[in-house]
Amino acid sequence: MIFVRLLIIMILISSCSSKENNGSIAQQADYNNYLEVEELSTSSKYFDLWNSKIRPDSMQLTSFGIVGGEYSRYFQRTGDIQYLKKAEQSLKRAVEIAAIGKAGYYRALARNYISQHRFKEALQLTDSAMAINGSKVEGQRIYFDIHMELGNYTLAEKYLDSIRNMSDFGYMIRLAKWNDYKGDLDTTIKFMELAGKKAESAKNSELMLWSYTNLADYYGHAGRIKDSYDHYLKALAIDKHNAYAKKGIAWILFSNDNNPKEAIRILDSVTETYRAPDYFLLKAEIADYMGNDLVRTKNLDRYFTLVQDPAYGDMYNAYNLGLYLDETEQYDKALNLANREVMNRPTPESYSWLAFSHLRKGDKEKAMELMDTHVYGKTFEPALLYQAAEVYKANGIYDKVKKLKGELIGALYELGPHMEKQIQDL
């Protein structure tokens, strides 16, 4: 399950830093009230009103836009891919019939495609929106987001510079993301804190929620585990159903507090109503660490069942790569999927998986060539650094292994307790 862990970490964290010597932090009394299971509502009078106006030959533009937005919100609350696909259908229809405001619908559909990891299609939609002379700033924001996902970092920086405005929340969070990519964690946190204060002053609960969960992640990267925990709790105080914040607390219990059983209990409460496949994979990983093969197998089966749905498209390619390489040893299948990921989004992460697939197939020279060209020195993510270290170890490049090992030892909180032995063995 080593490589499954690497995928989980790449979602929970995105940069490497030292860990403080922390004791147990999470307390049941702080979060127990948020774990009560209740089925989330995916309808409302407002939604039903507008949805009822839609017919097969409908030209009710307003209905499609509103319904699409509501479906997107339901996806965020439930993790159910069908809501994201229904939002796509509504927004595509809005694009088809809009005579005015079409650029806005193009941008909304582009954001939907970003969520589906359809980045090149999102780029085409953003081009279409800009050609209509829609909001230039909104278009440039989306260009930045897409080019970061595609690994076009020079272009991303260009679009970031084009929206420079230190009083704008959208600019500050993107500036934080840029500094995270550059490996400047202190500056990343600084700008996210400024963005959070701006959201608070505006009393915008949606932006506050977004700020708190992102700050919690960044504090975790910095080894500020108590600050991370406090901000996940602040997010839950706004939205008691927020699955991401609960997952963050579960990770603290697992990786910092040495309490995997409690981490599983939290995640079990989440997956009663939240259907995203990666949550089941995380439960399987923690169960593997505990030596509970029954729980591990049950959750792996649940993950595999969910991701067979073609609606997920390429969203879980990276997770599947980890399973092919470690769990099922389907190395040819992994190599094909890694090549697909590189075609979809030629980032250091995608190339790292491609290199690792070559290593597992026995082509250590090709693996090192890919690491040298596309990964080493181009990312600060501990999960990718671990993959690079394994490749360099196989090739006998021990000076690089030693350097990477030092960085990885300082990232044990991010990588988790199960990785400690693997890092020491490098």
Salient structural properties:
mainly alpha; 73% helix; 0% strand; globular
Helix content: over 70%
Query: What is the 3D shape?
Result: globular
Rg, Å, rounded: 22 Å
Average pLDDT, all residues: 89
How far apart the termini lie comes to 17 Å
The strand count comes to 0
Low-pLDDT residue spans:
11-22, 46-59
Strand content: under 5%
* Largest sheet: number of strands, sense, barrel closure: none
Q: Note the run of SSEs as H and E.
A: HHHHHHHHHHHHHHHHHHHHHHHHH
Overall SS class: mainly alpha
Organism: Maribacter confluentis
InterPro entries: TPR-like_helical_dom_sf, TPR_rpt
Pfam family, one: TPR_19
Protein name: Tetratricopeptide repeat protein
Quick structural gist:
The chain has 426 residues and is an all-alpha fold. It has helices at 2-12, 28-31, 45-51, 61-78, 81-97, 102-115, 119-131, 136-150, 153-162, 169-182, 185-201, 205-221, 225-238, 243-256, 260-271, 277-290, 293-307, 317-327, 331-344, 348-360, 364-374, 382-394, 398-409, 412-415, 420-424.
